[in-house]
Amino acid sequence: MHDMTHGTTDERTAIRLDRIRKSYPGQTRAAVEDLSLEIPEGRIVVFVGPSGCGKTTTMKLINRLIEPTSGRIHLDGTDVTEMPAHQLRRRIGYAIQQTGLFPHRTVADNIATVPKMLGWNKARVTARVDELLQLVGLEPGTFRARYPKQLSGGQQQRVGVARALGGDPQVLLMDEPFGAIDPLNREALQNEFLRIQSQVRKTIVFVTHDIDEAVRMGDRIALFSQGGRVAQYDTPENILAEPADGYVADFIGAGASVRRLSLLLLGELAVPDWPVIGQSADDAEVAAAAARCARDRLLVLDADRRPTSWVPLFGPDRERGEKLPVQGSMGPRDSLFDALDHMLSTNTSVVAVVDEEGRHRGALEMDSVRSLINTAGRREPSGPPQEV
Amino acid sequence: MSFFEFLAGNWTDVLEATLAHAVLVLEALGLAVLVGVPLAFLTYRTTAPRAAVLGAAGIFLTIPSYALFGLLIAPLGLGRGPSVLALTLYALLPVIRNTVVGLRELDPAVIESARAMGMGRLRMLATVELPLAWPVLLTGLRVAAQLLLGIAAIAAAVNGPGLGNLILDGLATAGTPFAIYLTIEGAAGIVVLAVVFDLLFAAVNRLTTPRGFGA
Ligand SMILES: Nc1ncnc2c1ncn2[C@@H]1O[C@H](COP(=O)(O)OP(=O)(O)O)[C@@H](O)[C@H]1O
Ligand SMILES: [Mg+2]
């Protein structure tokens, strides 16, 4: 498998599927044929692929909601294929698209389900519920006593995630958790979930059929084809840059190069410099600076080296002698995609790039974006999840 | 003598018979729950056993009530025994069917989540399945109660308790001046009980259905 070619030595394996096979009664072809897969600790591994290829089945094999026909399942180096299923499941959080929240129980009682089964005392359970509500961005005082029906879809999904985290499990299984949420809220939930993961650092198996979601959420992507076969298992960057075969390339689709842009963060790239002048520069200084460069504009910085405006050197703007507003600059967490999007939506040919403190780093043009894409090339598997 | 003058003379008998009637129905209902709910729970996920249980319970309902009460005299003698058992058999179908429907209608995602959180079979039954199936189960009990209130009048034919005795006395003395009053008292008692039971079930339903449920 592709993964073996990368440096995985510093990673502990949390879940190991060993030659797993699952055939449903009456099926001519097994849903999962012969799958071996190692899932590293503390990372989000996304199972992605077309409908019916065995992602959900594979995920449910991990907490043995579905028992394998043959093969072994290891958790933290221990063979759990035969341990009592209810004990195994209390160590594995579970969140699904339909949420499966108990409609007759309050939000607090839903979240308390596993802690209570684990025999935690009342004070600890209450504290845990409030902590988790806070973590998923729901004010405990407002939401504790509500029933699931009294929540929006997005709020229900948050409660579902909180409930899955209830017993502080090592592993979290999520089956299309944001699939039923409208696109705008889905992106907010995805980002929020990444923020949560940066705090809790669980081993997460995340199932989706949406390659965009896979690229956004995954530290690793396992791209499935029919019969629970993994066509490629690698970082999103590598899968987009070098699809293993025609099947993978087809599934990624035509937008792969654009998707890759959203993985290239400005903070990790060498942004070209741009000629600058101080705010108090007079006409002579502007003229001198202009003479030294071949650009059509200069970037004006304030005393703290923060971009304030552009001074055009040619064209109609120049004649009016006006400065143009910066219209938002790009920070280290913005991607090449964001930079390009900004240029297109504000109809400008250049965008200022700043550091964490908002100070000048350089600027990007269409041309420099293109050359950055070419030089960025392949990258090693990404480091630990980024703090946001 | 008018009906009300007649009633003033024997109202304690009527009250006693009405209470006995209610107790008889509640006993049978309780037994039907004790037998029917476990049967429903054991079979609701299966195909053939579920069909067999529902079919058997359905057959009891098709036996004419006089015949069923009479058939039970042989093993159980006269009086309370055959009355309670016969009514229990009649109640089985509504109780079992509604429990099965209630359990089968549960959201599979909820059941799957409960399993995925590591709930055992009994814990799931007590804390998830029965509470969620409860409104449908309760409707079954309500239907069964209305059914039994009427049929319980036949108990008098096997020397059982209840308002049937008034009706039977009326029939036995048909043609005498006050026979019709006895029958009216018996029938009216059943109607009043039916209304009271319905109100009680509505109250129980309101009190035991969680807030987030219906809304
Ligand atoms: N309970 C089941 N009984 C029989 N076949 C099933 C069952 N669940 C899934 N399958 C079949 O197994 C295959 C994989 O299904 P699934 O794991 O749900 O795929 P995915 O999640 O990738 O859409 C499909 O062909 C599906 O029809
Ligand atoms: Mg699926």
UniProtKB/TrEMBL annotation, chain B:
UniProt topology in membrane: Multi-pass membrane protein
Listed transmembrane segments: 20-44, 51-73, 79-96, 132-158, 178-201
Family label: Belongs to the binding-protein-dependent transport system permease family.
Keywords: Membrane, Transmembrane, Transmembrane helix, Transport
Domain ABC transmembrane type-1: 18-201
The organism's place on the tree of life at top rank: Bacteria
Species of the source: Streptomyces oceani
Main location as per UniProt: membrane
GO cellular component: plasma membrane
InterPro entries reported in the protein's UniProt record: ABC_transp_perm/SBD, MetI-like, MetI-like_sf
Protein name: ABC transporter permease
PROSITE patterns from the UniProt entry: ABC_TM1 (PS50928)
Intracellular or extracellular location(s): Cell membrane; Membrane
GO biological process, alphabetically ordered: glycine betaine transport; transmembrane transport
Pfam family, one: BPD_transp_1
Entries under PANTHER family matching the protein: GLYCINE BETAINE/L-PROLINE TRANSPORT SYSTEM PERMEASE PROTEIN PROW, OSMOPROTECTANT IMPORT PERMEASE PROTEIN OSMW
Keyword Lipoprotein carried by entry: no
